[in-house]
Write a structure and sequence with these properties.
Layout: E1 5-9, H1 13-25, E2 29-33, H2 36-45, E3 50-53, E4 56-57, E5 60-61, H3 62-70, E6 77-81, H4 86-95, E7 99-102, H5 107-121, E8 129-132, E9 135-138, E10 143-146, E11 149-151, H6 155-167, E12 172-173, H7 174-181, H8 190-204, E13 214-217, E14 221-224
Parallel strand pairs: 1-2, 1-3, 3-6, 6-7
Antiparallel strand pairs: 4-5, 8-9, 9-10, 10-11, 12-14, 13-14
Helix pairs in contact: 2-3, 6-8
């Protein structure tokens, strides 16, 4: 099982340590950043499943991070801030945040907010399983099986498959996939996609040379068929 990966952008070391320990105890993987610049680097290179961000950071306002991440990704963003004025909450939500929790906060409420955001971001199915052909993807446990046998996907391969599943058969352009899976620094590197798509087909298709599910739309992008 791949635990959800959370990027925590918070400059107060004591709060960061408290949140990190609680989230790790709850089973999450954590990457920590103490400012906007480091947070943006980690958002693009570490590929988190969710971002928690403070607004009052030493090198800028957290809304800048929200706006920049929103320019290339729809991953969930939770603001955790001492700013409790309505205008601050509205501004953060307008910038692209999904939720806002004011300090001081209870850890139970924070965990509940995180669970709700992660559920909202997941592909929705009645039993938590996405199926196409002989492949089953458990979107809660991040586990993949083919004809009942486990299939190991790398984190990049799983993120690529998850993006295609969320599109529900629609074509995702090369650029859309590169932005969502790798981040803005790799938006033109289509060879990354070709390599990882070839690996996915080797693992999930019966005949990788004639794929039935992981389909190329020439000069446009990819789609996942059979959902």
């Amino acid at each position: 099982m791949n635990a959800a990966h959370i990027l925590l952008v918070e400059d107060d070391a004591q709060i960061r340590r408290f949140v990190r320990m609680a989230l790790q105890d709850a089973g999450y993987r954590i990457t920590e950043a103490d400012g906007v610049k480091r947070g943006l680097i980690d958002a693009t290179t570490r590929q988190p499943d969710l971002v928690i961000v403070d607004l009052g950071l030493p090198d800028g306002d957290g809304k800048r991070l929200i706006t920049e991440v929103r320019g290339w990704s729809d991953l969930p963003i939770l603001v955790l801030s001492a700013r409790d004025q309505e205008r601050e909450k509205v501004a953060a939500l307008d910038a692209g945040a999904d939720d806002y929790l004011t300090k001081p906060f209870g850890m139970d409420e924070l965990l509940a907010r995180l669970r709700a955001l992660l559920r909202r971001y997941e592909v929705k199915t009645p039993d938590g399983i996405v199926r196409f052909g002989d492949v089953e993807v458990d979107i809660v446990r991040h586990e993949v099986r083919k004809r009942g046998e486990p299939v190991h996907l790398t984190p990049i391969e799983y993120r690529l498959l998850a993006a295609l599943m969320r599109a529900k058969g629609a074509v995702l352009t090369y650029r859309q996939l590169l932005l969502e899976v790798w981040g803005p620094g790799h938006a033109e590197r289509t060879h990354y996609l070709r390599v990882h798509m070839a690996n996915l087909r080797q693992k999930l298709e019966d005949d990788p040379a004639r794929p039935r599910y992981l389909i190329t739309e020439l000069q446009v992008g990819y789609r996942l068929m059979g959902l």
